[in-house]
């Protein structure tokens, strides 16, 4: 353990040691920093270098919960946070299931979350990476302009301790580059983006980031609004990853115990086509969000959610699991010291199929390759299941890609889309999201255009 | 929060490598939130966020560093880091003399929320839970969130500006779930103001709760939304988000400067129906996007953007207005001390027209009546935008008829602005919004009278 991590763990222990009889206390202490370089036309537009730290304290007494946090680790502020959390206990409603997580004996799957090369990477090299990405992207097509080219990295250390025996500490770091593009043709402008992530800059694929940013912007030039109709869609891996994120939220155990999940009461039933198997596996080191512990401090674990179309289980943190009378699935999520754990999927993946995207497309007479969606936050309701989102992409006619289209929507319901899955592609892409990308074919989706 | 002479020494350090401009933005925020879900007050949370961000500009490069350590040593270290990040050079010694600005606050605060008992805040949530559940047996779940914050802000810069303010906010959000034969449906209402706890004496929170319940219950009988192009009448209030997305973002000077806006180089041109006047106004008393000073220390103001369809001006942050040699428009904002300021909207709205809102519906043969819009997003370079309709009805033969299930609307900003063919005389502001841009969220207000867009694409599933 690093020296500074020892300090954090010591601070967490110190807070927990102040618990009175009959009181459960959790202390979550973190510290982190980030670098953010933005380049525009070869010059540094901004360079941000920042550090932050903070503590969150949760107190539970007689079934009532109180919480407080502060964005500082000043000793005075830490004392104040514990006092505030205790004061807040009085205003909570008694909840028989309230309680902190307890160690459950599940072993951690070790992950390589910290990289010394990144920690020692020179500032001038970070700037050079963003400049190089801008140059390579521009080299792809003379219709391109660059909106911005970025390098960013972040590191964080966390220690969590509870009176129930949780005592975890760890650190991680990571970095990415990204570029935003504009492509012009006469009066028309289209936009694109590309990115690459890594544990350290040596893992970046700048060529792919540049190529994708160029392609995304130029392929939509000349796109028109298509006539409305029902058709088969192929979701690009990047779109599938976003779609899986939404499906994951419908399998949230907290929503289930609170009676507002689409799939409550349907364990053991077929909720998807037989070709759909969905796993949440943060222990898979290939996943961008791979981790060894969850937000409760329990070991992260592999959970099969849908197996050949059958709903097998929901994801839980320790609280929702207690209410549902099951074991935690290690799916506590936490945004940082300023909040308490929620429930969420950590690293979703669809069981891949055998065929490439080109092969999937070859079977489709009238379809749409969906390359980008917008308005997922406004057009999808995970309680009612209504799904409606802005989309752009390329029409598929008689098994081949045709004209680019934009300014339309695609719509169905989440329930139907899962049942209407025709095939999953073989092209798994480990994107920097909570779900892996893969091409996904869904039948009978309504496209609304002109 | 920070003494004037300390500010002066920190700015001098920030300018020591030959920068053109340096700025300190410091905040000390105390917040309380409480969440009720599933009939229980799950948790009351107290928060404290305090720190300073230091920005140094040299040529085209901005260096930025922030710290949660507000001692002189902490600030000097951050100033040194920001200066080093901006550019190496030899600036010699420069003395900064600060002059404190007079800040005119849009509305006095009567009851600072940090002085209100937590029990009173929790009591609001209980009343909401009770009222929403009493609205109908179909209501199976209610969740409600209360939040308040008192944020002391200080801005000082190397031009000699020194300004401070207290920003007070109170927020309520109510979500309901109704259960019926067709599955579950949701309802949502919210209110947010930049005034104190007195807002809850002025607003009927029980009615707000019943409205959230009514939405969910009504939608149990909803049919799938149509698919394709139809006239859309948007009820006053929540439709302001259309203008936030369709033109607001495209009028932000940073997008314009990089040629990433469909409205670049178009001032003086007719960009909307002559019925349309759009204003961004950070001075409106009590509204969610209201501020006395923006996050670069400049007074907010009322900025007309489109007047009778003609594009009059963009919104500016200090960096870009300084470069252009023009006065700032008070639109430089940031999420917190840990973020760089950008051009952002405050309260963006369409002003009243002449039409009677009932006549607008009556003169629509077939279309969609949107009673409540959800969130949206826009691509400023293409003008394409989407937003969700969370409560909508069919219009048939000039009458509002069947409720519709949720769907997104999609359109192109400049086209939608030209297609507005009726603007009502019933202007109101809508609920509180959070506008996201480049990873930062800031509170914004929107508003509009009832109006009609002659055609928009509705992303439903019904033929």
Topology:
The complex is a heterodimer of chains A (450) and B (463).
Chain A: H1 3-16, E1 23-40, E2 43-61, E3 64-70, H2 75-89, H3 116-119, H4 123-138, E4 144-162, E5 167-185, E6 188-198, H5 206-218, E7 229-235, H6 237-250, H7 253-257, E8 278-280, E9 303-307, E10 310-311, H8 318-324, E11 332-333, E12 342-343, E13 348-350, H9 357-362, E14 366-374, H10 376-379, E15 386-397, E16 400-413, H11 414-419, E17 421-424, E18 440-448
Parallel strand pairs in A: 7-14
Antiparallel strand pairs in A: 1-2, 1-4, 2-3, 4-5, 5-6, 7-18, 8-9, 8-13, 9-10, 11-12, 14-15, 15-16, 16-18, 17-18
Helix pairs in contact in A: 4-5
Chain B: H1 4-14, E1 21-37, E2 40-58, E3 61-67, H2 72-86, E4 99-100, H3 118-134, E5 139-157, E6 161-180, E7 183-193, H4 199-202, H5 205-219, E8 227-234, H6 240-248, H7 253-257, E9 278-281, E10 302-307, E11 310-311, H8 318-324, E12 332-333, E13 342-343, E14 347-350, H9 357-362, E15 366-378, E16 384-396, E17 399-404, E18 407-412, H10 413-418, E19 420-423, E20 428-429, E21 433-437, E22 440-448, E23 451-459
Parallel strand pairs in B: 4-6, 8-15, 14-22
Antiparallel strand pairs in B: 1-2, 1-5, 2-3, 5-6, 6-7, 8-23, 9-10, 9-14, 10-11, 12-13, 15-16, 16-17, 16-18, 18-23, 19-23, 20-22, 21-22
Helix pairs in contact in B: 1-2, 3-5
Care to give the gist of this entry?
The complex is a heterodimer of chains A (450) and B (463). Chain A has 450 residues and is an alpha+beta fold.
Give the number of DSSP strands of chain A: 18
Q: β content of chain B, as a range?
A: 35-45%
Major beta sheet summary of chain A: 6 strands, antiparallel
Query: Rounded to an integer, what's the Rg of chain B over CA atoms?
Result: 24 Å
**Cα separation of the termini of chain B:** 61 Å
Uncertain residue segments of chain B: none
Structural class of chain B: alpha+beta
The biggest chain-chain interface is: A-B, 73 and 77 residues
Oligomeric category = heterodimer
- How many beta strands in the DSSP annotation of chain B? 23
Counting helices, strands and paired strands, the structural category of chain A is alpha+beta
How many distinct folded domains of chain A?
A: 2
Overall residue-averaged pLDDT value of chain A:
95
Q: Which strand order spans the largest sheet of chain A, edge to edge or round the barrel?
A: 3-2-1-4-5-6
